[in-house]
Write a structure and sequence with these properties.
By secondary structure, the chain is of the alpha+beta class. The protein is built from 13 helices and 5 strands. Helix content is 58%, strand content 10%. The protein starts with a helix and ends in a 9-residue tail after the last helix.
């Protein structure tokens, strides 16, 4: 690499690490001043009154009533990708934002810490639990203030138990968490983890109950886990000897419509039907579950 190109690379990397964040400094009387904060400690901030260049001013954090950081455009774009479930692309953007605003990490709800949190959420949602464990080790949560995010950090202990396939520990942790009042998206995670722990320990009936909770706890918003829970319920029912017997007797006059096998079969068929209608989204129902569509509830 030529020397000039090397200098440009180093300058660009340094500039990215010093990306200023637009903010309002709120005084005790309610007045505000628009600034761009370039760096911060727990005691002091350095800012300028123009986004690019201009004189810098240093002020004590205690000299202002509050600091309101605006959400950078890059963070808004990354969050849009995250909401669209484009986790690979979103993770790349969050990682860049985490670096670009790292000089602001002492401030509450700063872009760097927020981006680091959502980077870990991308890892969790895309199933990279080894990457999540590594990222969590290096994560400084001191910049987070939102209760929902802090609770999610606690729930990562469940996902690490999933990674390690430590089913007794997963069952213990998730059982304790399910007793708490949780928002729907987190209750889905806990119920799904309990379902997995039960299934992995040879308790299919308990697993079905927990997966059913995961299916309904978030009103369909946690689609990734809800979709997986639905598939697991269908597969567990298909392995059930009573369900297999109900399949064989489906068209016979002697069929017992109130039998356990029949009820479980129609439950599995209803999930297959729901998958086709809405739950599956653009993902087709797996071939091995399509046979369930023949067993919709008799009217």
């Amino acid at each position: 690499m030529k020397w000039s190109a090397l200098l440009l690379t180093l300058f660009t990397a340094g500039a990215a690490a010093q990306q200023p964040a637009e903010a309002f400094l709120i005084d005790a009387a309610g007045g505000n001043e628009r600034v761009w904060i370039t760096s911060a400690t727990h005691d002091k901030i350095r800012y300028q009154k123009q986004e690019q260049g201009g004189d810098s001013t240093e002020a004590a954090v205690s000299s202002v009533a509050s600091i309101y950081l605006l959400e950078p455009a890059a963070l808004s774009e990354a969050l849009d990708l995250f909401q669209a479930r484009q986790y690979v692309a979103a993770k790349t953007k969050f990682a860049a934002i985490k670096t670009a605003y790292q000089s602001l990490r002492p401030l509450p709800d700063n872009p760097s810490t927020t981006a680091g949190y959502f980077e870990m959420e991308c890892l969790r949602k895309s199933g990279d639990l080894a990457g999540l464990a590594k990222a969590l080790e290096a994560f400084d949560k001191s910049g987070l203030t939102r209760r929902n995010q802090l609770r999610q950090l606690d729930l990562y202990a469940l996902w690490d138990a999933v990674r390690l396939k430590d089913w007794p520990r997963l069952n213990e942790l998730a059982t304790a968490r399910l007793k708490e009042r949780l928002p729907g998206s987190q209750r889905v995670q806990v119920a799904w983890c309990l379902g997995l722990a039960s299934e992995s320990q040879g308790k299919p009936r308990e697993a079905v109950d927990f997966y059913q909770t995961a299916l309904t706890a978030d009103g369909g918003a946690s689609e990734d886990l809800a979709r997986d829970a639905a598939l697991r319920v269908m597969r567990l029912h298909q392995k059930d000897p009573d369900v297999k017997s109900a399949m064989k007797q489906w068209d016979t006059p002697a069929e017992d419509l109130q039998s356990t096998g029949h009820r479980r079969l129609t439950e599995a068929a209803a999930l297959a039907d729901l998958w086709e209608l809405t739950l599956g989204g653009t993902t087709p129902l797996p071939t091995e579950q399509k046979e369930l569509l023949k067993f919709r509830a008799k009217r």
